[in-house]
Each structure stands twice: as C-alpha cells, then as structure tokens.
Amino acid sequence: MRNYYLKPPNISWGIIFPFAWMLMFFLKSQTPVFIALFFVNISNIHWLTVMTSVVLIAVTSSFLGLFIAVSVSEVFEAQTFSSFFRFPMVFLCGLFISISQLPVFLRPLSYLFPLTYGSDLLKTAINENGHIAVSQSVLVLLAFSIVMFLISKRNIWHRWIY
Question: Among the residues of 6-113, which ranges form H helices?
C-alpha cells in the first residue's frame, strides 16, 4: 500500500492538487479570506455551502475514481484512463477560465462534467459569483454520484463476482 500511495500521480493529484485548488479559489475571489499568516475578514462566506460543495465534490470524485478503477485491470491503466477525465474537467469547469469566456462549442461540454457544478457551488459560497442555482448544482452532483456508484457496482458484479 505504501508503494501505491507514494507514487507521483497520487501525491500530485491526491495531496497537492486539492490544496492548490482551494488556494486558487481564495486568491481568485474578490472576498477577503484568511490564508496562512494573512488575517482577512471571512464573515460573508457561506460556510454551509462551502462544506456541502467540498463534500459533494469529494464524493463525486471518489465515485468517478471507483468507476475508473473497476473499469480497468491494472493500476497504471487506471491512472492513464483517469487523465482523460481529469484534465478536460479541470480546464473546462470554469475554474481557470469562466464558462462564459469559453468558445461556444466547448460550453455544452463543460456542463457534462461534475466539477463544473462543484466549482460553481464554491464560487457561489465564496463571492456569490456562481451562475448555476445552488439546488441544481447539488442535484446534479448527487445524480452523478449515484449514477457512477451504480455503474461501478454493476462492473464489480459482472467482472469480479460473476
């Protein structure tokens, strides 16, 4: 287990990426936030929405990872296969570039990724700059999680249990 978890992809995507993502949100938002040694006002952040979005993003990502893991036979294949989901999702979800600034033909694709709804939830919580309704984002993330879980369960049943 030590060999698996200390591989570079797991360290970069599992440990460093979440912290970098949170830091990017706080730096990009116009709302003052407490980061490291800098004291700033955080009273107008909706913490319930932040925690809900973080939990939903984690659950959805876990079930997407489970889907990828049970769809392949080798760990290396799973890491390679996950890149096909991860990179487009990160760059098209509105995290770095607003969805409204994306080319018109890429906008519908960005709404297929669950990270779009999770990042919009965080934007809404931090600076009320989201463009998707909170209830819609929560429902889409829950639906995506349930679908990924059911597909993964089916794959486990057919590939490993027979």
Answer: 8-11, 17-28, 47-71, 75-92, 107-110
Q: How much is the pTM? A: 0.69
Phi, psi of 35 (to 5 degrees): -125, 125
Tell me the pLDDT tens digit for each residue of 2-40. 555 555 555 555 666 666 766 666 666 655 555 443 443
Cβ atoms of 159 and 151 closer than 8 Å: no
Sequence-separated contacts (24+) of 1-6 with Cβ below 8 Å:
4/75
Tokens describing residue 135: 């209830």
Start-to-end CA distance of the chain, whole Å, equals 27
The whole-angstrom separation of Cα 11 and Cα 9 is: 5
